[in-house]
Design goal:
The chain is mainly beta and about 700 residues long. Helix content is about 15%, strand content about 45%. It contains eleven helices and 32 strands. Strands 20-21-22-23-24-25-26-27-28-29-30-31-32 form a 13-stranded antiparallel β-sheet. The chain has a twelve-stranded antiparallel beta barrel with strand order 1-2-3-4-5-6-7-9-10-11-12-13. A hairpin with a 4-residue loop joins strand 11 and strand 12. The two termini are about 50 Å apart.
């Protein structure tokens, strides 16, 4: 098993264990250190964790070193961080720029909770798949002494074992890892060992005072003249502002000044309390005999009932696509452009239906669709809705019957205004490129006009036009050859080619191949870099946590300066995919197959997902090309997050903003960016996702 495989397996095991085992109360802090990790100290680690799911960005500066860190509390016991550092004047062999730029990843796991007499204990890896500039490992213990004091002591290796070491655990390889990106397994917990520690005093809910003894000698920085280290003691104070902001000022190693600022948010807690949505309609109990079926033989009464149903569905911001109405049941096929939570759609439609239906209709079935394709059928007894409207939502969950929607359209009557329809949006856009040593952050910004023409159920024509108003991505150096086809590293050429571009112009067909089976075929200009045809099949039972998919694409590379032109590079690519919902909000995806540069390999992604639509995760791709051929970074990896706008605005909308932070843009491990992949279209209407958000059924 390769080092990367071991690392991914170990990370998955940590997440699985943390998700599956009931958690005791962990020792937490809202303070962050100079490395962007939750810590009551300044430069040293502690055994403290951030509050579960907290997402924090920090910026710190000390001795001509600036570190920008993104930290996420993956689980109550597990913290992960990504760091980008710039060190002015650091002398690295073979590096000619005045500032040295470094990327690093950290993991920390709290394996022992704090008890009455015992401390919390944690183990950590710093810069474990970077170049090794900050490479270190540690074991650390932290104990609370009342409400005000916390004391920490630990032992470190690597950077954290470089000052006043007291023992050694073997020979630690020296030097940096060149292009970085590979786990330094041969260094873990080897070499000189040194002790560190410190104390934190919580003066008030806003002010925190710190003192620590550092085991980091800053050997390279001191040797290159960045600062003079006149001691191992560091002192500092931090002030906590509102809305998760924090400022820290420190005196380090003999009076050298340092500063840190951090900003935190938590997907579990919305910035806008409550909801600005109009309250749902109340269930209307039946007053007439449920045995009176006379209305069902009167066309005028049936027509009025359908009109009322349509009005009530549209009142909730939804669209009624088709229906089937009998004397005792109704089936409503509904499109959802509004609610992030499918459970909220079901509750609102079911409530509204009780106000429009004659008393004899007892069974209410709501079918959710995507692009006109039925995803699931949820059936409720009207008498249950009347009886349990003010009971906990779980009561209705237990009484709902959820089935596959493959045959849900049979016998339904289509609404005449459901198709065709045209949807469009004009929005700002930002395209960023990061971590190029010549300029770590470059961006283009402008306006994007998007349109979707829903021709008929399953058929969608889509197009995007972007107009760049400002930016400097076109100033990036031309891509250098690594022996691989230029499929991603030449992205700056597209920015140089046109200020007005057409990233997408395609026609897609979505369908059902049978029970549990979904399909998609898309053709046209699929993304800014490639045009061709893409086909996909997904197996996803409505009640299963597991889904399996397969995708095949045949594409040609698009011209740089011609919206409709093609280059002479063509490639067949595709993947088999496994998706699994591990429970407790954790989701894993594995894609294996052929990538755009013709390389073969696999991508593993682990995400923490929340019922409100937030998602934060990480991914790594390893293919059959060597680390040297891939170039700096050794293999493709990164972190990604999705924020639902409903969380920020307090009003229901399905709009989201997504971003990813990749180590570098390289050609190895590059996958086609086709829109509308099936899994994300299908899963929201299925049982695992409905269960997560079922608390919104009555909202």
């Amino acid at each position: 098993m390769s080092g990367l495989s071991k690392l991914l397996s170990g990370t998955c095991a940590l997440v699985l264990c943390t998700a599956a085992v009931p958690q005791a109360e962990t020792l937490t802090t809202t303070s962050f250190n100079m490395y962007g990790l939750p810590s009551g100290l300044i430069d040293m680690p502690t055994a403290e964790m951030a509050p579960d799911a907290q997402f924090t960005s920090t910026i710190s500066h000390f001795a001509d070193s600036t570190r920008v860190t993104l930290s996420f509390q993956i689980a109550p016991r597990l913290t992960g961080s990504f760091r980008y550092s710039a060190v002015e004047g650091l002398q690295i062999p073979g590096y000619t720029l005045s500032s040295y730029y470094d990327r690093s990843f950290d993991l920390r796991y709290q394996f022992l909770d704090e008890g009455t007499y015992r401390p919390a204990m944690a183990v950590g890896l710093r810069d474990f798949i970077g170049t090794g500039l900050y490479g270190s490992e540690y074991l650390v213990a932290t104990k609370s002494l009342g409400d005000k004091w916390r004391v920490t002591g630990g032992v470190g290796w690597g950077r954290l074992g470089s000052a006043n070491s007291f023992a050694s655990s073997g020979t630690r390889p020296t030097g940096y890892l060149g292009t970085g990106g590979l786990p330094s397994l041969d260094k873990f917990f080897r070499g000189d060992m040194a002790a560190f520690g410190g104390v934190t005093y919580q003066h008030s809910d806003k002010l925190r005072l710190k003192m620590e003894y550092s085991s980091d000698a800053y050997t390279q920085e001191v040797g290159d003249g960045l600062f003079t280290r006149d001691g191992a003691l560091n002192f500092g104070a931090e002030y906590q502002f509102a809305q998760g902001a924090q400022l820290g000022l420190y005196a380090m190693h003999g009076g050298n000044l340092a500063a840190m600022v951090s900003f935190s948010t938590n997907p579990k807690t919305a910035p806008v309390p409550g909801s600005a949505d109009v309250a749902p309609l109340a269930v209307l109990p039946r007053g007439k005999s449920a045995r009176d079926l006379g209305w069902s033989t009167q066309p005028q009464a049936v027509g009025q009932t359908v009109a009322n149903l349509k009005t009530l569905v549209e009142f909730e911001g939804l669209t009624l696509e088709s229906y089937k109405l009998t004397g005792t049941s109704v089936r409503l096929v509904v499109r959802n452009p509004r609610f992030e939570a499918g459970a909220q759609l079901l509750g609102r439609v079911a409530r509204g239906a009780t106000r429009a239906l004659p008393a004899s209709v007892e069974t209410i079935t709501v079918v959710q669709t995507s692009h006109g394709v039925p995803l699931s059928s949820a059936s409720f007894k009207r008498s249950d809705l009347e009886r349990y409207e003010y009971a906990p939502a779980e009561v209705m969950y237990d009484r709902m019957v959820l089935t596959d929607g493959a045959d849900a359209l049979e016998g339904t009557v289509a609404m005449t205004d459901a198709y065709p329809r045209f949807e469009w949006a004009l929005t700002p856009y930002v395209s960023m490129s990061m971590f190029d040593p010549q300029s770590p952050v470059r961006a283009d910004g402008g306006l994007k006009l998007s349109g979707d023409w829903h021709i008929a159920p399953g058929w969608v024509a889509s197009g995007d036009i972007t107009a760049k108003l400002a930016g400097n991505r076109d100033e990036l150096r031309p891509a250098t050859s690594t022996g691989l086809p230029l499929v991603r590293s030449d992205f700056a050429e597209y920015s140089r080619g046109q200020d007005v571009a057409m990233p997408n112009l395609s026609l897609a067909y979505y369908g059902r191949l049978g029970e549990d089976l979904y399909s998609r075929v898309t053709t046209g200009y699929l993304e800014r870099g490639f045009a061709g045809v893409s086909g996909e099949v997904l197996w996803k039972p409505v009640g299963s946590r597991l889904a399996l998919g397969g995708e095949v694409n045949y594409v040609a590379k698009r011209a740089y300066d011609d919206a409709f032109g093609l280059q002479d590079y063509e490639v067949a690519t595709g993947h088999g995919s496994v998706y699994y919902d591990m429970g407790e909000g954790y989701h894993v995806q594995v894609d294996a197959g052929r990538y755009l540069a013709g390389d073969w390999g696999a991508t593993v992604a682990i995400d923490r997902e929340f019922a409100n639509g937030w998602s934060i995760g990480a991914y790594a791709t390893k293919t059959n090309i060597s680390a040297a051929q891939f170039g700096e970074g050794s293999f493709d990896k990164g972190i990604r997050f999705t924020m639902p706008l409903a969380w920020a605005l307090g009003t229901s909308t399905r709009a989201k903003t997504s971003a990813s932070v990749a180590s570098l843009t390289r050609d190895g491990g590059a996958r086609l960016r086709v829109q509308g992949r099936l899994y994300e279209q299908v899963r929201d209407a299925h049982e695992p996702e409905l269960a997560k958000s079922w608390g919104k059924f009555w909202r």
